[in-house]
Specification:
Structural class: alpha/beta
Order of helices and strands: HEHHHEEEEEEEHEHEHEHHEHEHEH
Radius of gyration: 21 Å
Shape: elongated
Length: 351
């Protein structure tokens, strides 16, 4: 099945200009591309058969020439606390990915995955336990949002690429995804409402800065010294904190967008007063915001969440140091909240 899919171009990953070229190459008028694009990216059609204004001959040609990516809903969990929904989707090749839908006062957010698995090896993350299977195509990233929108019947206004996978490790597909998602001919989600999280692949962060996009870049920092960061995140063996701070400063210079630092608080590991002081020294002067995250415990690791008192003390210390900081509101805590947990549990139950 996979080789069959590989032989076909992925129609949902084409930009509108690319789709026009494809239609012209087939001897069709370019307006057919606009019609197809609208069905895929605005009306969120699940198949060619739904496209009622496309001639049967062209539908047959498209089915023959192009794969049409849709996801199959395997499982959905809904939080009884806040209504957060966690989705497990099957890709066309049978691989599984997770997405999370969260309702906030300012609108609905979807957190999507960018890879099947992950090879970054961060110590507190369930996504990376089985390594990287493959990158997701732009269409497979988009379709997580489209499938959630169809399922909830509600518009998505914010998208976070912070699920399973390292987005910068799937850089070209990520860029295409952002272009398609923010295109006025599709869902037209503002780039300012798109957040991309990275563990810190410095060369890709610099390349992204040079694109001058208006997305928010969130760096998974999680430590205030190189030594401690290397314990938590293998990527720290390749890029120092000094390099990271420099590229974050460069990103702000190129885009005018303030950096978000994600900091997962792990009890007894990175949540002390000394850690807070070192963090202040590290990022002082940067136009940034710190998002403190009580770590999600996973059974394969022995990390536990910092106590509320320690979280509040850490927050207060940063505020006193002039750092803009919030504690992330915990959503869906009564379901498999951490990245990779639902997929891993499903795979284990089917062994």
């Amino acid at each position: 099945m996979e080789s069959l899919l590989e032989n076909k171009k992925d129609i949902k990953s084409f930009t509108l200009p690319q789709l026009k070229e494809e239609m012209e190459a087939l001897g069709e008028k370019s307006f057919r591309a606009s019609q197809l694009y609208e069905w895929m990216h605005r009306k969120l059609a699940e198949s060619y058969e739904e496209m009622t204004n496309i001639p049967r001959k062209l539908v047959d040609l498209c089915r023959e020439q192009y794969r049409y990516t849709t996801l199959h809903l395997v499982q959905v969990q809904e939080s009884r606390i806040d209504g957060t929904r966690k989705y497990l989707f099957a890709l066309p090749d049978g691989n599984l990915v997770e997405s999370v839908w969260m309702r906030y006062q300012h609108g609905n957010s979807v957190c999507i995955s960018s890879q099947v698995g992950c090879r970054m090896g961060c110590r507190f993350c369930a996504s990376t336990l089985d390594g990287l299977e493959r990158n997701l195509l732009p269409s497979e990233m988009l379709e997580q949002i489209y499938a959630v929108t169809r399922h909830t019947g509600e518009r998505v206004s914010n998208v976070v690429v912070m699920g399973t996978g390292e987005p910068m490790d799937n850089y070209e597909n990520l860029l295409r995804f952002i272009i398609l998602l923010s295109d006025e001919n599709g869902l037209h989600i503002s780039q300012r409402n798109i957040t991309v999280s990275t563990c810190g692949i410095v060369p890709r962060m610099r390349e992204l800065a040079d694109k001058h996009l208006q997305i928010t870049l969130a760096l998974s920092l999680h430590a205030s010294t190189d030594e401690k960061r290397r314990e938590l995140m293998p990527i720290a063996n390749s890029y120092s904190l000094q390099e990271l701070i420099e590229v974050c400063s460069y990103y702000f210079e190129q885009t005018g967008r303030r950096i978000t630092f994600e900091y997962s608080l792990v009890k007894g590991v990175n949540d002390t007063d000394e850690d807070a002081r070192k963090l202040i020294r590290l990022i002082k002067g940067l136009n940034c915001h710190v998002n403190l995250i009580p770590v999600n415990p996973i059974k394969e690791r022995d990390y536990v969440q910092s106590e509320r008192r320690a979280v509040e003390a850490f927050q207060n210390k940063l505020e006193q140091g002039g750092i803009n900081v919030t504690v992330r509101r915990e959503m869906g805590r009564d379901i498999d909240g951490a990245c990779g947990q639902l997929r891993r549990r499903h795979l284990e139950s089917n062994l």
